Structure formats: C-alpha cells, structure tokens
Amino acid sequence: MRRAFLIAIPYVWLLALFLVPFFIVLKISLSDTDLAIPPYTPTLDLSAGWVGIREFFSQLDLENFIWLTEDDLYWKAYLSSVKIALISTIFTLIVGYPIAYAMARAPEEWRPTLMMLVILPFWTSFLIRVYAWMGILSNEGYLNQLLLWTGIISTPLTILNTNTAVYIGIVYTYLPFMILPIYSSLERMDGSLIEAAEDLGCSRLQAFWLVTIPLSRPGIIAGCFLVMIPVIGEFVIPSLLGGSGTLMIGKVLWEEFFSNRDWPVASAVAVVLLLILVIPIVLFQRNQQKQTEAEQ
Amino acid sequence: MNSDVFAPWEDPQAKPLIQFQNVTKRFGAFTAIDDLSLDIYEQEFFALLGPSGCGKTTMMRMLAGFETPTAGHILLGGQDIDPIPPNKRAVNMMFQSYALFPHLSIWDNIAFGLRRDKMSKRDLEERVEEMLRLTRLEQFARRKPHQISGGQRQRVALARSLAKAPKLLLLDEPLGALDKKLRQDTQFELMDIQEKTGTTFVIVTHDQEEAMTVASRVAVMDQGKLMQVATPDRIYETPNSVYVADFIGDVNIIEGRATAQGDESYQIDWAEGQPPLTATSATALSKGQSCHVAIRPEKVAISAERPTDAINAIQGKVHDIAYLGNLSTYHVELPNGTIIKAQTANTRRISRRSFTWEDPVWLSWTATAAVLLEN
Asked: Which structural domains are found in chain B, ordered by start?
C-alpha cells in the first residue's frame, strides 16, 4: 500500500503536468478553427451527456496534419530547424570542448571558480542577454565598431538578422550545457592514463585522440543532446537575432498561434515537433543508461 | 667468488645499463633528489626502497621521461636520455594504479603499445597471445578491465608494459593494491617473469619485505639520497647506518663507547655497572668514540641460566611476549630501562612457554652477531 503510494506520486505529477496538457494540445490539433472563444471547434459539452461526447469525437479529424504535408512551409521549417540545430551543436562542441578540457586540467583550487564563471550567465535573464547580442551584432554595434576601428574592415558587416547571428546566439546560450557534461567526464579521468599512453609510444596528440576523446565520449554525447534537443524548438533566438530568411519551426508555431490565431494548426505543428524530438530523447536516455551501467 | 652467481656490480668490466650521474631534481624549493649517482646493470631486478617522500618515485619518473633532472644526467646504455620524450624511450612503466584503458578490452590494452610500432598484424597478434600466455590471461582477453579482479588487472598491466620488450621495465608499487596472500604469490610470479624475459626491472616500493624478496639489489633511500645499495642479505646483515638497520627489519640498537680490543674487535661500554659488550667492526673506530651496536632479534638467544660460553650476556626481565605462530618475540627490559627484543623460532609445538611475564632471563649473543655502527 505504502509502496503503491510512493510510486503513484511521480506518476500523478507526470499526469498533471505533462500528459494532461499534451492531450489538450492533441485534442486542439484535431479540431477546426472557429471564430469563437476559444477559437476552435468542437468543445466538449458534458451537459449533453453520452450523446454530447459522441458528437464531440465524431467532429475530430486529422485535417490539420494533412495540411502540414500539403503546404511545404512546414516540412521546410522542420528540416531547417534540424539543420540549424545540428550545425550549431557542432559549433558548440568545437567551442565547448577546449573550455571543458582546460577546466578539467586547471589546478584543483581554480576549478570551482571556473565552474562558477560558466554558470554565471544564468544569473541574468536569458532574454536580456539575447537583446545584448543585438547591441553587439547590429550594423552600428560594438563588434562592427571594433572591427572598423582596428581597420580590419572598411564597411560594417551585416550580421544581425542573418543565420550567422542565430548561430552565434545559440552557441553562446547553450555553451554551458555542452561544457558541464564534458567537464564532468574529463575531470573523473585518471591522469596516469595519458602518461601510460605516452609511455607506450603515443605522442601527445595521439594520446588525446586514442584515450581522452574515447573516455569523454559519454560527456560529448550528453552535451550534444542537451544542446540539440531544445535548439530544434528554439523560438527567442531566431526571432530576435534571425532575419526573414531564418526559418525555424518555433517561429512558425508562434505565427500560427498569434498572427493567424489558428490554434488547431499550431497545435498540430507542436505535436509533430514532439514526435521528431522523441527520437533524440530516446537515444539520449540510452546513452545515459549505458554510462551508468559502465560505471557499476 | 663463484662466477655463476649473477653479480655484475662486482665486475669492474661490466657496463651498466642505467647510470645516474650526479642527478639533482628540485621542485621549487624542495629537493627531491640530491646529487645522486647510481649504476644499474642489465638483467638486474633493482629495488628502490624508502618511506614516502624519499624521492624513489621521482627517480622512476625521471627514468620513464615524465620528469627531467634539474642537474646531472641519466644514461641508458651509454646514451644521455634527458632530451628523449617518454614515447621515444625503450623504457616501459607499470603504473601504481595500473592505468588500464577502461574503454579497451584486455587484448586491446596489451596491443596498445604494439600498434604504435606499425607492426604487421600477424606479429602483433602473436606477441599479444604470447603475453597473454605469460601472464595466464588467455580466457580474459575479450573482457574489459572493470570485469576482472584486482590480481588479474595487475597482470594485464604487467603484460601491457612487457609487450614492447623494453630494455628497462619500471614498476611503481606494483603490488600495493593486492591483499597480503596474493601479494606474496605475485612476488614470485614477478621474479619468474623477470627471469624468463631477461628484462631489467626497477621496482619502487615502500614494503621492505617485498624489496628483499624480489630484488637482486636494494637501494635504501632517504630524503633524496641513497643510504645504502647492496644485495638484500648484505643490507640486512651489514647495514651501514642506524637508519638502514632500523628501516630494514627489526633491530635492537644499543648506544655506547668503543674501545679497541684487538684486530677488528671492540669492547663497548654501554651502561654503568654492566659488563661491556664485544663486537667486531671492519671500519676502524677511535678510542672512546660513541657508536651504536645493532643486533637483530633473531640473533639474541634467551635462557633462564647464564650461558657459560657466551661472550655477550645481559640479564633482564620479560616485559612483553608476542606469539606470532612460527616465532615468538620477547621484549626484555634491562635494569637501565632499555628494551631488547629477542626472537625464538617455535620449531616444536609448545603447550607451555618456558618463560612468562616478569621472569628474570639472560640474553646472549656471539661477538660477530652484532654490527657496530658509527654515529
């Protein structure tokens, strides 16, 4: 009895905070738009009893999902989101790995400070930090001023409102999610393994490639998923830093919802996005599980 | 000297494999190795023995190439190896933590060094199989390091470091992580493997028993200096200082003043009202020079009556008895408060001890049993 109760708590939690909202979204995605409040039909009328419920279900259809396949805006947006997520994940890895490596190699007394510096940006609002990047990247921004002043360029670069600005914003924002798992896997590594590799004839670079990289692989995989999964659905960065050419599904969803007031299509977009994300989430879970098993 | 006995250090013609030439190593203000010179010969099983912080690990890391001397040179086969990085040295090391690669199987761990040599696939496989046979690990080849026991891991580490057939193998506290029984078995295994492969082994240890068991020669170190370098029996029987005598095994130290009695024979006055002791010393001592008599407990006989023929005999009373099964150690208190340990072998089964606490007893030893050490 007690055991059942203990197990029930997280499931009730999950039901209330995840499954119920999900089913509401799913229900809306199967409805049609309507000039009403809320702006879709049918709505469930329990006062009509069993007939009302039957009536409600008979009006649900997959029309919105079919619509998503008919207009090429949507699949292009999904594809472009995945592409941007993949590319920015690779950039984040390239920038994050050396930082994590340097942190793990730093003297022990320095590490908490370095860790603090990585987490520090979280103390201010994410939105404000993205706005700050607008100030840096705009045509009259600090970056262009600096480059003009040093004489590297003679005309200001257009960075803001391009995909480049989106990549910069994503790499900046998600860097800690890449650094922390890689750092934790590197920090646990026994330093004598590198010495052993050198002793057995490896150069420094070979030892890094043959020992350090394979041993930090769980951290690399975890970091990549932690960056890629939220970036696919990212809305704020592309809408503030990106231009009209930046096509991402988060932005499409927002427009369907607020500009078109087409809640059912917006919900359908969200459901498909969730289905796309299930694949990397499952892979991520598997990686974590494998790692725990290996540690035992 | 019998020419069959392996003792290249006594042959002035023999060329040492490793030469430390006035090597000094400092870490900041701390001197780890202090102007040290040492020769190690081919096929030796050489032990560096000392308490932690004595510099033995630094010596080993300099041989492996992870540290370079601050001053002086290290020669390997006559060549100065200071500028050679660790991956280019014909020296391999077995790490204290074993440092097995957790992501590779036992087989791949052993093959790791060979793969760096661009060996042909057939030769490589043959060599790995040979190493697996040597260390009796054939049936574990496909497992990962975390799937085998500590003793097996130790053997993998040994196989991996021997695979490249190095001129010199360094072993850093190789048996430290094993329990006592397994450690003793492994010591003999190590000696067998060393003999079979003919590789020069340098072992670092703080365990004097281990050093004495495996090594052809032992270097006792303290504070970055060599205290004594000799074969295990010479170290034990003729220590050159109180430090070495005390570090290796159990010893009784009696302080006194020496008076020459004849050829290499000395009389030592050690306490008021006690008969002087007699001991021999190869080094000459001046009259009245203060010195230490070092005597091993097993060389002290214990009896109820005064032995008639003993040169050295002192009376005392039993203070403590330690029964170790094969041996019994008696702590005997002398009239001036000094405790002398005497050890007897329990060669027969005893139902009752001949002495018990507070019994008056006589301790005796021969003139050559003790070593006379200068201050």
From this structure: 8-245 (3.40.50.300), 251-374 (2.40.50.140)
B126-156 confidence digits (pLDDT tens): 999 999 998 889 999 999 999 999 889 999 9
Helix H or strand E segment including B59: helix B56-64
pTM of the model: 0.81
Q: Which of residues 39-68 of B touch A (CB under 8 A)?
A: 64-66
Q: Does A293 touch chain B (CB under 8 A)?
A: no
- Closest partner residue to B113 (CB to CB) among A192, A201, A214 is A201
Question: Is residue A43's pLDDT more than 90?
Answer: no
At A246, list the tokens.
């930046």
Tokens 């690779």 found at: A90
Structural contact between residues B346 and B326, judged by C-beta atoms closer than 8 angstroms: yes
B92 is written with which tokens?
């391999």
* Residues contacting residue B35 through CB under 8 Å, at least 6 positions apart: B22, B23, B24, B71, B72
Nearest Cα neighbor of B80 from B22, B27, B163 is B22
- pLDDT at position B305 is 86
- Element spanning B218, H or E: strand B217-222
Residue-range domain boundaries for chain A: 70-295
DSSP conformation letters of B78-117: TEE-TTS-GGGSSEEEE-TT----TTS-HHHHHHHHHHTT
**Among A99, A223, A231, A101, which Cα is nearest to A173's?**
A231
Q: Does B102 touch chain A (CB under 8 A)?
A: yes
Complex prediction ipTM = 0.81
Q: Is the backbone peptide bond immediately before A42 cis, with ω within 30 degrees of 0?
A: yes
Q: Is the pLDDT of residue A10 over 90?
A: no
> Min CA distance, B99 vs chain A (Å)?
5
What is the dihedral sign for C-alpha A178, A180, A186, A188? negative
**3-class DSSP state of B287:** coil
Strands B360-365 and B301-303, sheet pairing: antiparallel
Nearest Cα of chain A lies from the Cα of B181 at a distance, in angstroms, of: 27
**CB spacing of B99 vs A201 below 8 angstroms:** no
Q: Which residues of A touch B85 (CB under 8 A)?
A: 198
Residue among B176, B188, B174, B141 nearest B60 (CA): B174
CATH architecture classification, A70-295: Orthogonal Bundle (1.10)
User: Which residue on chain A is closest to B160 by alpha carbon?
Assistant: A200
Q: How confident is the model at residue A296 (pLDDT cuts 50, 70, 90)?
A: low
Chain B, 176 to 195: residues with Cβ < 8 Å from chain A are none
A-B CB pairs within 8 A amount to: 56
Are A199 and B64 inside 8 Å of each other by CB? yes
Q: Which residue has the tokens 């001592």?
A: B285
CA distances from B301 to B197, B307, B313, B354 (A): 44, 10, 9, 13
Q: How far apart are the first and last CA of chain A?
A: 31
Interval A124-169: pLDDT, tens? 999 999 999 999 999 889 999 999 999 888 888 888 999 999 999 9
Least trusted range by pLDDT, from A38-47, A169-178, A215-224, B157-166:
A38-47
Burial class (CB in 10 A: 0-12, 13-18, 19+), A264: buried
Residue B352 has pLDDT above 80, yes or no: no
Q: Residues 20-79, chain A: which have Cβ within 8 Å of B?
A: none
Asked if B313 and B306 count as a contact pair (C-beta separation under 8 A), the reply is yes
Distances (CA, A) of A296 to A287, A289, A290, A291, A293: 15, 11, 10, 9, 5
